[in-house]
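Hey team,

Filing this mostly as a record. A colleague (T.K.) asked me to run one chain through the structure pipeline before their review meeting, and I want the input and output archived in the tracker in case anyone asks later how it was produced. No errors, nothing strange. Just documentation.

Input sequence:
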Amino acid sequence: MNGVGVTEILIILVLGLLLFGPKKIPEIAKTLGEAVREFRKFSSTTYESQAMKTQRDEGAVIGLARGIGIDIEGKTQEDIIREIMTLAKPAKSMEQQEKARENP
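Output structure:
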């Protein structure tokens, strides 16, 4: 079995009682509870801030795409970014354009 069973929990509680004594157990439990609460609070805040950043970034990509005339209908954000990158590649120099016209 992969979980912690009743027997294991009882062994841990008895060991804790023997090591720390009956007066320290409530203090340890309180401290542990506060630590878990802070961890959950931090995790939730971090997830929410990451989600807000992702939304803001998606809005910026869509705004840029619309600004340069890319049709975004039915495209994923990755497709839109790929198209923006294609348009952002540096244009060929005048010499390269002339050579391309002379040697088709």
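Quick notes for T.K.: The radius of gyration is 30 Å. Residues 24 and 71 are 66 Å apart (CA to CA).
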